[in-house]
Amino acid sequence: MQKSYVYDGTFEGYLTVLYDIFKSGDEPASICRTDTGSATLNLFSDERHTAAEEKKYMLMKKAIIEKISAETFENTVHAFLSEMPDIEMHIYRYINTGREKGNDVNKLLADDNVIPVLRAAQRVKHEGHRMLGFVRFADAGGIYYAKINPDANILPVIIPHFRTRFGSQKWIIHDVVRNLAAFYDGGKCAIKPVESLELNGAADDETKYADMWKAYFKAMEIKSRHNSKLQQQLIPKKYRGNITEFR
Q1: 0.90 cut: is pTM over it?
Q2: Which of 125, 146, 161 is the last residue of a domain?
Q3: pLDDT band of 39, cuts 50, 70, 90
Q4: Which of 18, 114, 214, 234 is the most buried (most CB within 10 A)?
Q5: For the chain, how many structural domains are there in total?
Q6: C-beta separation of 122 from 75 below 8 A
Q7: Spatial separation of the C-alpha atoms in residues 238 and 126, rounded to whole Å
Q8: Which residues fall within 8 angstroms of residue 195, CB to CB, at 6 or more apart?
Q9: 130 lies in a domain?
Q10: Are residues 107 and 208 in the same domain?
Q11: DSSP characters for 201-233?
Q12: Which domain covers residue 106, as residue numbers?
């Protein structure tokens, strides 16, 4: 009987599941996470709960990179962060195909075992890159704070940019959709679940920056006769609630 694997929702937990699956040689009935139930358990399969194990995670990561390619591992990470329905099974089929095709797996643009992962990975990369221009920080008691509401779990994607940009400055980027936050202390960075984050108020620099942006958009509105479509292209409405000049 096939097994339905349940894991803790972390990437480490997921690679642990993949390690167990490939080690056993069995075809999984389903793979789902306990926190969101991203896949429906198969009623005609044995349910197996798997805890994350660092050793298995590292072995699986190494196997993907060395036996397929680093590109494949990168696509795996980004696709996982997409949180699209049944992404775990899509990634499993993608890697399973890669075990046979090697890095050529990423050229199989018409393969149903490959294309869902490549598309998911591309969407996450695109959203992460796009979000860099929409993150707005406010001074919250000496710590810069910003909130985002992304479609995908892009915190791990955008963190390197802001670590480089702000150097030793402490900051928090809060994903309000998932109630996760990236905390940067000027040296180390960690992503943690949070219940709430309180702001002490916007700094003067934030106000000045917001006024500059308001003036910019006012000029753009006059030039384009209040072309809302142009504004939508520049800054989509879904991001405007987090940007001071649209409040």
Answers
A1: no
A2: 125
A3: very low
A4: 18
A5: 2
A6: no
A7: 16
A8: 179
A9: no
A10: no
A11: ---HHHHHHHHHHHHHHHHHHHHHTS-HHHHHH
A12: 3-125
List helix spans (H) across the chain: 11-24, 54-67, 70-82, 87-101, 115-131, 155-166, 204-224, 228-234, 237-240
Q: Cα separation of 100 and 93, whole Å?
A: 11
Task: Tell me which of 125, 150, 176 is where a domain ends.
Answer: 125
Position 73 confidence tier, pLDDT thresholds 50, 70, 90: very high
Buried residues in 226-242 as b, exposed as e (16+ CB within 10 A): eeeeebeeebeeebeeb
Residue 111 tokens, joined: 């393969």
Type and span of the H or E element at 128: helix 115-131
**Cβ(80)–Cβ(11) under 8 Å?**
yes
At which residue do the structure tokens 């960690």 appear?
A: 190
154 plus 210 within the same structural domain: yes
209-227 pLDDT tens trace: 344 345 444 554 555 544 5
Asked whether residue 11 is assigned to any structural domain, the reply reads yes
Cα 174 off chain centre by: 13
CA–CA separation, 165 vs 148, rounded Å? 18
The gap from C-alpha 92 to its chain's centroid, in whole angstroms, comes to 18
Structure tokens at 14: 């997921």
